Amino acid sequence: MTGQGVFNGSRYLAIAWLTRFPPRLRREGRHLGLLILGHFTIFLLALGHDEIVAECVANGTIPAQHAELLELAIGLALFLCWSALTIAIVRLIDRARADARG
Questions:
Q1: Deepest of 13, 50, 55, 58, by most Cβ within 10 A of its Cβ?
Q2: Within 13 Å, how many C-alpha atoms sit on residue 66's CB side?
Q3: Which residues of 7-17 are buried (b: 16+ CB within 10 A; e: fewer)?
């Protein structure tokens, strides 16, 4: 692992190490890495959005009669974000494939 900037090397964040690519692929590689990180974040939020709403109801932040509607709205927003990230990844891959073909 020497020279990769992770251990006893220069100081890089873990995300920078994970998204390292050759110079010709650097921009697309980092973009793809961030899109995948976005997918992971949306996935985690989708797993816990009902618990977040339940905690808000328990704290009195939102009334109990609006909890179900809020939970559906958050689920819809997360679905739309997931769809937008998926479309962005497909476009990125199609653009890279077209550039590779010439």
A1: 50
A2: 9
A3: eeeeeeeeeee
Task: Using only the alpha carbons of the chain, give its radius of gyration.
Answer: 20
87 HSE (CA, 13 A, CB side): 6
pLDDT value, residue 1:
43
Q: Tens digit of pLDDT for each residue in 77-92? A: 999 999 999 999 999 8
Report d(CA 78, CA 95) in Å as an integer.
Answer: 26
Terminal CA-to-CA distance of the chain, rounded, Å? Answer: 35
SS3 19: coil
